[in-house]
Amino acid sequence: MDQYNKMVSTLDTSKKKTPDEEALYVTTLKALSEAVSKIDITYHHLLLNNIFTIRIWYLQRDTLDAFLDLITRLAAVADQYLRECLQMLVNNFTPPLVQRNELPRWAVSRKKDIFFHLCESLKTISDTVPLAPRILRDIIDRSMPKLFDNKAKMVSFVECMLGLDTDRMGDLIGATLLAKVVD
User: Fold this and answer.
1) Which segment of the chain is annotated as a signal peptide (predicted)?
2) Burial, 17: exposed, middle or buried (Cβ in 10 Å; 0-12, 13-18, 19+)?
3) 3-state SS string over 58-88?
C-alpha cells in the first residue's frame, strides 16, 4: 500500500518536479500504460482522479508523450474509461488562463504543439474505439465555451476543435463541429 501511495503522489502535478522526479513521473506513466487492463475504478479511484485532472499544458515533452500514450491505451480498455479520457483531452483544448483572462506567453508558444498532440491522441482513440467519435461529439457539444466566455478561451477551443476535422474523424463529427462554430 505504501508503494501505491508513492505512485499516486508521483502523479500529483500540483508542484514543480526536479529532473529526477520528472524521470520517475515518465517511468510511472510508461509502467501504467503497460498495465491499463489492471486499473480498476473501485481500487484505483485516487490514481484515476490524478490522471483525469492533469493539465497537459504544464508537462514537459517526454512526459507529455508518455501521458498521452497512457490516455490512448486507457481509453481502449473495454470502454471503461473512454468518456473520462475523451473529456480530459477536450478539457485541454484551452490553455490555462492567467491575469485578465489572457493566455500566458509560454502557452502561446506551445499551443500548436499541444493541439497537434491532442488531435493525434483523439484520432488514435477513434481508430481504436469505434464508439469514440459519437461520444466525443457529445463531449465537445457540452464543453464548448459559451457566448459570454473569455474570447481567448473560445478561440483556443475552436482552433483545437477544427484540427479534428480531418480524415475519418472529420467525416463522423465534422458537421457537428461546424454547427458549433457557427452557433
Assistant:
1) none
2) middle
3) HCCHHHHHHHHHHHHHHHCCCCCCHHHHHHH
Backbone angles phi and psi of 54, in degrees to 5: -70, 135
Higher pLDDT, 105 or 39: 39
Q: How many helices (H) and strands (E) does the chain have?
A: 9, 0
pTM recorded for the entire structure: 0.88
Domain count for the chain, please give it. Answer: 1
- CA–CA gap between residue 82 and residue 26 (Å, rounded): 22
Going by C-alpha positions, the residue among 82, 85, 69 that lies closest to residue 33 is 69
DSSP string, 120-178: HHHHHHHHH-TTHHHHHHHHHHHHSPPTTS-HHHHHHHHHHHHTT-SHHHHHHHHHHHH
Residue from 128, 31, 44, 42 nearest 82 by CA: 128
The confidence band for 70, taking pLDDT boundaries of 50, 70 and 90, is very high
